[in-house]
Design goal:
single chain, about 375 residues, alpha+beta, Serine Threonine Protein Phosphatase 5, Tetratricopeptide repeat, six-stranded antiparallel beta sheet, five-stranded antiparallel beta sheet, 10 helices, about 20% strand
Length: about 375
């Protein structure tokens, strides 16, 4: 009976209508909506990532596939990248002569300016690159001759002589130099210049006679501005004695001759004003330092003409111990004159010791006398 009453009570309770607040339904609906939205956004996020990963994989895959094909084809033109390496190796020897030519030009230019020490450095550097280059050997020998280092010069001349006729004009020059003791300024120099593979021809050409007691260390040409002159320049000539020799300065004569082109055709002794002065105070060669003579060439803008005979007599003849003097000349009437170059000769006891010229062809046109002119 007791159990029956409890059962009836529970049934009556459950069968009774439950009254629910409307706000509960609203809240429950919002929760469901937010849950569905969260599920949607999460699904969209993960689907988007999967799609991005698939696209990236597809984008990376083609280059890998494409690279495999060229790898096969790249084996076919394999010699192509080898060709530049071969051409560079073949071009390496061709670059060496250009370096030698550059050093040769620099050495000659330095020697022309009187910087014989640096000239030797350049020329020997060129010789290190090409030890059997006949042109370089000849230029080194000529530079040592200019420096009066005859032992070293003769060593270079002998190397050229030992090379034989294969050295070309340099062999002939060396053979003549060792036999006669006088550098030949003629065709041998021209032959060397032609065989120098583009090297510049030296401007100053000449040398010192073997067995001489004096020599020319440098000849430097500088402009000497003068508003009243058409052309004004000066030569600085260094003259040195041989080591261990005693010089009587009264027996020294330096002859400087300037030459002009007349009408762009003929070459004649200048009619310009020429004067000289010693830049070193003693100029007696009591010590080993060179004595320096300055000779000026001045062509006035206007003036009369000088006779050809007087020009020869008025060529600058410097004698140590005498005061500087000037020879008066002027522009010749008629054909226009232009400065061309010079010949410098040094005599001791009336015998030629050394000669220097610019340009070299002046020595061919006007060969220097071995004794003082007029003797």
């Amino acid at each position: 009976m007791g159990l029956l009453r409890v059962y009836c009570a529970m049934r009556a309770l459950l069968s009774r209508t439950i009254q629910i607040d409307p706000s509960f339904h609203v809240a429950l609906g919002l929760i469901v909506i937010f849950g569905m939205a969260e599920i949607f956004f999460a699904t969209s996020y993960y689907v988007g990532r999967a799609r991005t990963a698939r696209i990236s994989a597809e984008a990376v895959a083609p280059p890998v596939v494409r690279s495999s094909a060229p790898s096969v084809s790249s084996q076919r033109p394999a010699p192509a990248p080898v060709q530049p390496a071969v051409s560079q190796q073949a071009a390496a020897p061709a670059a060496s002569p250009s370096l030698v030519d550059q050093l040769l030009r620099e050495g000659i230019e330095l020697r022309d300016r009187g910087d014989t020490t640096n000239a030797i450095d350049r020329l020997e550097e060129a010789l290190d690159s090409e030890p059997n280059n006949a042109t370089v050997l000849a230029e080194i020998a000529k530079t040592y001759d200019l420096m009066q280092l005859y032992d070293r010069a003769n060593e270079m001349w002998r190397r050229l002589q030992e090379m034989g006729p294969s050295a070309g004009a340099a062999y002939e020059l060396a053979d003549q130099r060792l036999k006669l003791g006088v550098p030949a300024p003629g065709t041998a120099d021209a032959g060397i210049a032609n065989s120098s593979a583009g090297a510049a021809e030296p401007k100053d050409v000449g040398g010192t006679r073997e067995g001489s007691v004096m020599g020319i260390t440098q000849v430097k040409t500088t402009e000497a501005p003068d508003p009243d002159a058409e052309t004004s320049l000066a030569l600085q000539i260094g003259i040195k004695k041989q080591p261990g020799t005693t010089i009587d300065h009264m027996k020294v004569k330096i002859l400087v001759e300037f030459y002009d082109t007349v009408g762009d055709k003929d070459i004649k002794l200048t009619d310009a004003d020429v004067n000289y002065e010693w830049l070193t105070p003693k100029h007696d060669w009591t010590d080993t330092n060179p004595e320096v003579l300055s000779v000026k060439y001045v062509r006035p803008k206007m003036g009369g003409a000088s006779s050809e005979s007087s020009l020869v007599e008025e060529a600058a003849m410097a004698r140590p111990g005498r005061k500087a003097r000037a020879t008066k000349g002027s522009a010749a009437n008629g054909a226009q004159r232009k400065y061309l170059g010079y010949i410098v000769r040094v005599y001791y006891n009336d015998e030629l010791q050394a000669v220097q010229a610019e340009p070299s062809r002046l020595l061919q046109l006007f060969p220097p006398s071995k004794i003082t002119p007029g003797q």
